[in-house]
UniProtKB/TrEMBL annotation, chain A:
Keywords: ATP-binding, Nucleotide-binding. Gene3D superfamilies: P-loop containing nucleotide triphosphate hydrolases. NCBIfam families: sufC. It holds the Pfam family ABC_tran. One of its GO terms (molecular function) is ATP hydrolysis activity. This is Fe-S cluster assembly ATP-binding protein. Residues 2-248 form the ABC transporter domain. PANTHER family: ABC TRANSPORTER I FAMILY MEMBER 6, CHLOROPLASTIC. Belongs to the ABC transporter superfamily. Ycf16 family. It comes from the Bacteria. It comes from Mesorhizobium tianshanense. Signal peptide: none annotated.
UniProtKB/TrEMBL annotation, chain B:
It comes from the Bacteria. It holds the Pfam family SUFBD_core. This is Fe-S cluster assembly protein SufD. Residues 169-393 form the SUF system FeS cluster assembly SufBD core domain. NCBIfam families: sufD. GO terms for biological process: iron-sulfur cluster assembly. InterPro entries: Fe-S_cluster_assembly_SufBD, SUF_FeS_clus_asmbl_SufBD_core, SUF_FeS_clus_asmbl_SufBD_sf, SUF_FeS_clus_asmbl_SufD. Transmembrane segments: none annotated.
From TrEMBL, chain C:
The lineage of its organism: Bacteria, Pseudomonadati, Pseudomonadota, Alphaproteobacteria, Hyphomicrobiales. Residues 165-226 form the SUF system FeS cluster assembly SufBD N-terminal domain. It holds the Pfam family SUFBD_core. This is Iron-regulated ABC transporter membrane component SufB. Residues 234-476 form the SUF system FeS cluster assembly SufBD core domain. It comes from Mesorhizobium tianshanense. PANTHER family: FES CLUSTER ASSEMBLY PROTEIN SUF, UPF0051 PROTEIN ABCI8, CHLOROPLASTIC-RELATED.
Length: 251, 422, 505
């Protein structure tokens, strides 16, 4: 489903190269965890997948279902089914969360040539999803992410993920800032979305999240490259021995 | 209304124009300088600014400047100690600089009268706009002052204190300072004296690349003095200027601050305190130009108004079209403590670049009653509690300066004022 | 959020020139000769069958006006206006007032159809004399959920029709054209006209006092809550015509009225002058809510043509506990010069100003408010949202003052500016004047652009760039939109979207 080939990318503003020859393949139905120390390029990778203009791909390609997505803008990628759960979700004053959800869902439907959702159907979907994530509907009437706690923001991200039904979910440090209860709820929400036709890329610094969302593969990112891949035991190994060993091997 | 009339000259305007005729033969300057003086007096002949001139909206100089003293000082001013012990002092007494200049490594000091005579200062005498009345007044009459040149890389461990001391009459002084690349200095500008005076004082500061300067203006004129001052600075690449202005005196005061960032990475900080008492009028007007990308500024002005004092703060931040990534913040907070006091604020943003973060805030309030109540509930009587809160309100700005000697010196000036007006 | 969707749809439907109201209507007009003189003023006054006191009032203003010069302090630039090259009176031939549908020029009805004045109103406009109240009260599912709206339509200089008059009269509310009020209610007009904006107030107000041709008059008597929204649509049609309407609204003790004005004009290469005066008077415990959706023709993409909108609007909170609230959505005009103000004269009175000013192309906006605190315990609130795009200049200019006797005056001001593109300018010029120690003023202002982070976030959810910006902008102006009557809120959101069309690079 996702194939990243020899990807090189740099920051447009100052030309700093962050991703330096990254290769990664994620199949449909697979949950891939990307781990790595701070500054290894994890968040950058998520932004590049989503099409952020601050980064420029200088070499290599990203194939999604066999097609290159490099020329697509963020909205087109989203409509094609790529979803990024942000590490720091943006606050958008004055825009009620419900309105935002409706516009986003209907825009994506439109892009796929589907009819807009009828209001009752929309409400039902939102209510169901909110219940699953233990979210209060009152919160969804508030402006998007404004005044939400860290945990509420992350839950709202997963809620959006559920409603938008993407095919490729990229979760950027979704566990950061969550207490253990919130982590469980968010993880259950994510696990419920695991499906044979859906791939997930879970970016995390710690193994903690992977106790709840058990990955099919684990990849260690260091200096903009995948330096080691393995199954879920690799995550446990990293937890026990730190990154130094793996990085040392690679260097 | 917009009815245009040609008004009669006021006594002050007439006195200034007459004085120019009388003084002309005594004023130093080569041909270029003298031509600039002629232009300047022409500007005064066309009338002092009124409230119809936007930048003078709250200070109708034509109406407020009711009389002009002649040039003869009443006495010789007394020397005063610098606010920070050990500072190198450059005194200007009744408008005349000293022939003795301190010998400090990396610093060259020249009397301004010499620069007027040889004409090398001429370009700096240009006014910065049609409404630059202080510039015009000063250019017409300026006879002396200093030019201080701090060499590249010089780091001064003690402040330089420029003292402009008057004992009545008119004084018109210019203080020019160039701070070389990478140099670091603290410069104190003292403005004080006694007697009925008209003072115009223009300070010009040029900051080289990476220069770091703290400039303190301490104005403590008597309530018989008209004090018209200007501070102009250009901030070069990666330079840093912290300007601190304290107005604690004067009958009619206008302090203009004209700052321009001319190099990327320049950083400007303004901290101001206006302590206003009696039947006085004090106006601080700032025009800040962010002329290049990636520059930052913050301005905080705190005002305490007592008696029948009238205060004004005008602050305009201009962000030019190419000055992207400008970060500018301005705040003006006023405590209005008497029923007869007034304060007017006009914080302006003029923004032509889109990728900027600019903001300003302004408040006019009484003392916070809950704070007052809290202190009184701890057994502090109301008068003491009020004094405590008012002082804390302004001291907060001083304490931000991270130089202990300076903070102490300024707090001492603050204490003096509260003692006299508390 | 249907408005956003609608905005986008609407934007897509519009051609290169985005101004949808830019049609001209061929209607037989009755015009005075070009230029201004005492004779023209006599002509206007005679045309309107005015009493002699009104003529004298006009002439006095005119004599004053010739001694004045146009103000230059605002941050707007335009060539000197030749006041002798303007028609000061133009009226559709069918005046005065239709008595049956057939009297209303069908072209005129089409105009209102094109203006998008909601269907229900058009029926009312057309069926003006079929004023069978019960029939009009039939419930309907039209957009006016909050109730019915009485409309006064002003076409060039003349009020062509006012709806719901009879029903309003039953409640004691007078809603008619100002010309009619001068004839039918001279005692009220004489008492209040010029009492808020004196004839000598400023250059354009003085001009208006001399030549105003029509406008709306509202009188809500003591204790009456006006049973419906009142609305005036202003339309400038005739070439080289100035529009000088005059609106006077009086709310007596304890009365309440909500009034909305909407404005459009055809596309023309020349600039047209609009110099209106609006006066509001609120007596004890009265409340007036005045909303404006201003969409005069802004000029073309090169800055050619467009309306010069030089307007004096002022409300006088004359009574204790009175309240006046201004809400404006300004998207049109080549130049806007407008400061709806409140004089807080009564004790415990309050004033509000909510504004959205959108500028694009070469538009110049210098707008804001004045809150003059005179009485005790008065309060005011200012929320201003400026959005500048294209090559436009957008200035907020506002004054808040507390006079010596205005103990406990309170003001809160928030003005935020949003810049879209790097060729436009946003300026904030607040004047705060406190002369009373118990005053509490709080002012905050920010200027920024739409954050790239926000835009990326919204687009990541599948929302295309242009709509992402519309969404964020609508969020930015939400606080003000909420102040509008609901039906107009939707219209205003659409207008903002349309106005910003093409600004995304």
């Amino acid at each position: 489903m996702l194939e990243i080939k020899n990807l090189h990318a740099r920051i447009v503003d100052d030309g700093t190269e962050i991703i330096r020859g990254l290769n990664l393949t994620v199949k449909a139905g697979e949950v891939a965890a990307i781990m790595g120390p701070n500054g290894s390029g994890k968040s950058t990778l998520s932004y590049i997948l989503a099409g952020r203009e601050d980064y420029e791909v200088t070499e290599g390609d990203i194939l999604y279902n066999g097609q290159s997505i490099l020329e697509m803008d963020p909205a087109e990628r989203a409509a094609a089914g790529i979803f990024l759960a942000f590490q720091y979700p943006m606050e958008i004053p004055g825009v009620a969360t419900m309105e935002f959800l409706k516009v986003a869902m209907n825009e994506q439907r439109k892009a796929r040539g589907e009819e807009p959702l009828k209001i009752p159907e929309f409400l039902k979907r939102v209510k169901d999803a909110a219940a699953l994530l233990n979210m209060d509907m009152a919160m969804l009437k508030r402006p998007l992410n404004v005044g939400f706690s860290g945990g509420e923001k992350k839950r709202a991200e997963i809620l959006q993920m559920k409603l938008l039904e993407p095919k490729l979910c990229v979760l950027d440090e979704t566990d950061s800032g969550l207490d253990i209860d919130a982590l469980k709820i968010v993880s259950e929400g994510v696990n419920a979305l695991r499906a044979p036709d859906r791939a997930m890329v879970i970016i995390t610094h710690y193994q903690r999240l992977l106790q709840y969302i058990v990955p099919d593969s684990v990849h260690v990112l260091y200096r903009g490259q995948v330096v080691k891949s393995g199954d879920k035991s690799l995550a446990l190994d990293l937890e026990a021995n730190g990154y130094a060993g793996v990085i040392g091997e690679a260097a | 209304m917009n009815i245009h009339t040609t008004p009669q000259r006021t006594p002050a305007e007439t006195a200034l124009i007459d004085a120019f005729g009388d003084r002309l033969s005594l004023l130093p300057g080569d041909g270029t300088v003298m031509l600039k003086r002629d232009d300047a007096i022409e500007a005064i002949k066309s009338g002092l600014p009124t409230r119809r001139i936007e930048s003078w909206h709250y200070t109708d100089l034509r109406r407020l400047l009711t009389s002009v003293p002649d040039f003869d000082p009443a006495a010789a001013p007394n020397a005063i100690a610098p606010i920070v012990e050990g500072s190198a002092v450059l005194p200007v007494l009744n408008g005349v600089s000293s022939t003795k200049t301190p010998d400090i490594e990396g610093i060259a000091v020249q009397r301004l009268s010499e620069k007027l005579t040889d004409g090398s200062i001429a370009p700096g005498l240009d006014r910065y706009g049609a409404d630059d009345a202080i510039g015009a007044l000063n250019t017409a009459f300026v006879a002396d002052g200093y030019f201080v040149d701090i060499a590249d890389g010089t780091e001064l461990d003690k402040p330089i204190e420029l003292q402009n001391l008057q004992s009545g009459g008119q004084t018109h002084v210019r203080l020019l300072t160039r701070v070389g690349a990478g140099a670091k200095a603290v410069i104190v500008e003292r403005q004080t004296g006694e007697g009925a005076a008209l003072v115009s004082s223009v300070s010009q500061l040029l900051l080289g690349e990476g220069a770091d300067v703290t400039w303190l203006i301490v104005q403590e004129q008597p309530d018989t003095a008209t004090h018209l001052a200007q501070f102009k600075a250009h901030l070069g690449k990666d330079s840093k200027l912290t300007l601190f202005v304290m107005n604690a005196g004067g009958k009619l005061v206008r302090q203009e601050i004209v700052v321009k960032t001319t190099g990327e990475g320049a950083d400007f900080t303004l901290r101001g305190i206006n302590l206003l008492a009696g039947d006085t009028h004090t106006d601080v007007t700032m025009v800040l130009d962010h002329a290049v990308p990636h520059t930052a500024s913050t301005e905080v002005i705190r005002n305490v108004v007592t008696g029948r004092a009238r205060g004004v703060f005008q602050g305009r931040i201009n962000v030019h079209q190419y000055a992207q990534k400008t970060n500018a913040k301005m705040a003006c907070n006023t405590l209005l403590l008497s029923d007869d006091g007034e304060f007017s604020t006009k914080p302006e943003l003029e923004i032509f670049a889109d990728d900027v973060v600019c903001g300003h805030g302004a408040t006019v309030t009484e003392i916070d009653h809950s704070h007052l109540f809290y202190l009184m509930a701890r057994g502090i009587d109301e008068k003491t509690a009020r004094g405590f809160l008012v002082k804390a309100f302004v001291a907060e700005v001083i304490e931000e300066l991270d130089d202990e000697a300076i903070v102490e010196a300024l707090e001492a000036r603050l204490d003096d004022w509260f003692l006299a007006h508390g | 959020m249907p408005a956003v969707q609608d905005t986008i749809d609407r934007v897509r439907k519009i051609d290169v020139d985005q101004y949808k109201y830019g049609f001209q209507t061929e209607i037989a007009m009755d015009k005075a000769p070009k230029g201004l003189s005492e004779d023209i003023i006599r002509f206007i006054s005679a045309k309107k069958d005015e009493p002699s006191w009104m003529l004298e009032w006009r002439l006095e203003a005119y004599r004053r006006w010739v001694t004045l010069e146009a103000p230059t302090w605002a941050r707007v630039h335009y060539p000197k206006i030749d006041f002798q090259d303007i028609y000061y009176y133009a009226a559709p031939k069918s005046t005065p007032g239709p008595t049956s549908l057939s009297d209303v020029d069908p072209e005129l009805l089409k105009v209102y159809e094109k203006l998008g004045i909601p269907l229900r109103e058009q029926e009312i406009l057309a069926g003006v004399q079929k004023t069978d109240v019960s029939e009009l009260e039939e419930p309907s599912d039209n957009v006016y959920k909050s109730g019915r709206v009485a409309v006064d339509a002003v076409f060039d200089s003349v009020s062509v029709v006012t709806t719901f008059k009879k029903e309003l009269a039953q409640a004691g509310v007078i809603f008619c054209s100002i010309s009619e009020a001068i004839r039918e209610h001279p005692e009220l007009v004489q008492k209040y006209l010029g009492s808020v904006v004196p004839t000598s107030d400023n250059f354009y107000a003085t001009l208006n006092s001399a030549v105003f041709t029509d406008g709306s008059f509202v009188f809500v008597p003591k204790g009456v809550r006006c049973p419906m929204e009142l609305s005036t649509y202003f339309r400038m049609n005739e070439k080289n015509t100035g529009q000088f309407e005059r609106t006077l609204i009086i709310a007596e003790e304890g009365a309440y009225v909500s009034y909305l004005e909407g404005c459009t004009a055809p596309q023309r290469d020349e600039n047209q002058l609009h110099a209106a005066v609006v006066e509001l008077v609120a007596l004890d415990d009265a409340e007036i809510k005045y909303s404006t959706v201003q969409n005069w023709y802004p000029g073309d993409a090169e800055g050619k043509g467009g309306i010069y909108n030089f307007v004096t609007k002022r409300g006088d909170c004359r009574g204790d506990r009175s309240k006046i609230s201004w809400t404006q959505v300004e998207t049109g005009s080549a130049i806007t010069w407008k400061y709806p103000s409140c004089i807080l004269r009564g004790d415990d009175s309050s004033g509000e100003f909510y504004s959205i000013a959108v500028s694009n192309g070469y538009q110049q906006v210098d707008s804001g408010t004045k809150m003059i605190h005179l009485g005790k315990n008065t309060s005011s609130r200012i929320i201003s949202k400026g959005i500048a795009a294209g090559f436009s200049q957008n200035t907020y200019r506002g004054q808040v003052s507390a006079h010596r006797k205005a103990t406990n005056a309170r003001n809160f001001t928030n003005c935020d500016s949003l810049l879209i593109g790097d060729q436009c300018g946003a300026h904030t010029v607040p004047y705060m004047e406190a002369k009373n120690a118990t005053a509490q003023f709080e002012h905050e202002a920010t200027t920024s652009k739409i954050s790239e982070d926000q835009k990326f976030y919204v687009m990541q959810r599948g929302i295309p760039e242009e709509e992402a910006i519309a969404l964020i902008v609508n969020g930015f102006v939400k606080d003000v939109i909420q102040q509008l009557p609901m039906e107009f809120a939707v219209e205003a959101q659409k207008l903002i979207g349309i106005s910003l069309e093409g600004s995304v690079g």
